[in-house]
Amino acid sequence: MEDLMIWIGRFAGIGGLVLLAIAVFARFAGRYILGAFQVTTLLQAGIAALILGCFCFLEVLTERVRTQR
Q1: What is this structure's pTM?
Q2: Measured between alpha carbons, how far is residue 60 from residues 31, 46, 49 in Å?
Q3: Hey, which of 16, 21, 52, 69 has its CA 20 to 30 A from 10?
């Protein structure tokens, strides 16, 4: 389970960074809409993915501390 949470955290973090980068570059280019999505929607999705990745890594860290006691 620990390995699964680590991989979910990695993929969510990478995906979140990609979405954030796309949203930031699009906004700097003066675009408000990319495809069928507003740039702010992509930004929020990127933030949510980063938070998911952080929570997955936090769960792994707290589980390791619990098992060491």
Answers
A1: 0.89
A2: 39, 22, 17
A3: 69
